[in-house]
Amino acid sequence: MEIKITRTAAPRPKPADPTKLGFGTVFTDHMFTMDYDVERGWHDAEIVPLQDLRIHPGAAVFHYGAEVFEGLKAYRTDDGAVQLFRPADNMQRMRDSAERIQLPDFDAGFMLEATLKLVELDQDWVPTTPSASLYIRPFEICTDIDLGLHGIEHARMLIILSPVGSYLSGGLNPVSILIEDQDVRAVRGGTGYAKCGGNYAAANRAAHKAEQKGYSQVLWLDGVHRRYIEEVGGMNVMFKVGGKIVTPQLTGSVLPGITRRSCIQLLRDKGFAVEERLISVEELMELLQSGALEEAWGCGTAAVISPIGSFAYQDKVLTVNDEKIGPCAQELYDTLTGIQWGRRPDPYQWIVKVPKKA
Ligand code: PLP
Ligand code: COI
């Protein structure tokens, strides 16, 4: 399918101080949109100036949460080029998420092409400042005008771009985590493995409570036993114990993170044993109490590697590695960001180059 391009007649100024970029509040000049209906399939693929959407208030996305999304980044290399990290994995995961919600399937290769075209057009927005990047947010919504609960017949796909700095305000400083023992984010058989808006809505109450108490993120326990560690708000989680790396296994209620997958490969290639298994909160508390937990960190696209300095569970607060970043998290951060920003070789072919502006 041809992607029609309409350039903006009024390009907006880039952020005045790119070192002060937060996360996800500034957007570039253009966006991608494409519509779906059962008769025609996907059609009208277009890149247009960024603009508000006209969507009927009866559209199912507003009522029943029929939405899935992705998050990936474009990085500026030292020689001025722009590149993406494992974008095909994001497109495949969005297909898996869409299948869970029964939003229409799409051609992942075409969505990658659309992403590359959009980033190519708006490449001047990719920050040149250290550790800043261009966050890419593809999403698919149900546009059926229907308050009944039926199979989806109309949908829209969009991609928007946002120059971003650190997701967590402290950057690489260790974060404090509250282990949530009341609300659950997901259950097996539910939508936990899918990247759909509803999962984040379900997380809001606990995340808000944690924020009010001064914690930066929530650690979720499994929804059945409220016992096994799943993941952090927007990150997967890893622990270093006795020289080995341990991370929760993917049980269906945890998001299969692309950063998680990349970390596991990098760690194994560096000679670490990595175990994907169930980890109970009691085991974690014992490891913390005895000092056997060497390091803990979260990993995700937005946050990259985020060392964890302390865990609070019920009435206990226990720290890890004197609330300092540990050598393993630092090494992972350096290797991952080295590959993403093109400062280290990419033996895995994870990088996809964005063509230079025509
Ligand atoms: N878990 C959740 C709930 C997330 O929102 C994210 C972020 O995308 C992750 C884990 C990490 O996934 P990825 O590394 O693919 O960004
Ligand atoms: C990402 O890391 O891309 C995410 O989607 C996490 C989100 C909570 C910002």
Number of helices: 7
- Largest beta sheet, briefly? 9 strands, mixed
Assign the structural class, choosing from mainly alpha, mainly beta, alpha/beta, alpha+beta, or little secondary structure. Answer: alpha+beta
**Beta-sheet strand percentage?**
25-35%
Q: What is the H/E order?
A: EEEHEEEHHEEEHEEEEHEHEEEHE
- What compounds sit in this structure? pyridoxal-5'-phosphate, 2-OXO-4-methylpentanoic acid
Give the number of DSSP strands: 18
> Which geometry do the CA atoms define?
globular
Quote the distance from N terminus to C terminus: 20 Å
Give the C-alpha Rg. Answer: 21 Å
Helix content: 10-25%
Mean pLDDT: 96
From the structure provided, what is the oligomeric state, counting identical versus distinct chains? Answer: single chain
- List low-confidence stretches: none
Please give a handful of descriptors for the protein shown.
about 30% strand; globular; 7 helices; about 350 residues; alpha+beta; binds pyridoxal-5'-phosphate
What's the short version?
24% of the residues lie in helices and 30% in strands. It is an alpha+beta fold. The structure holds pyridoxal-5'-phosphate and 2-OXO-4-methylpentanoic acid.
Can you characterise this structure?
With 358 residues, this protein is α+β, with helices and mostly antiparallel strands. The chain contains 7 helices and 18 strands. A hairpin with a 5-residue loop joins strand 5 (72-76) and strand 6 (82-85). The longest helix has 16 residues, at 197-212. The chain starts with a strand and ends with a strand. The mean pLDDT is 96. It binds pyridoxal-5'-phosphate (PLP) and 2-OXO-4-methylpentanoic acid. Pyridoxal-5'-phosphate binds at residues 71, 231, 234-236, 255, 257-260, 300-301.
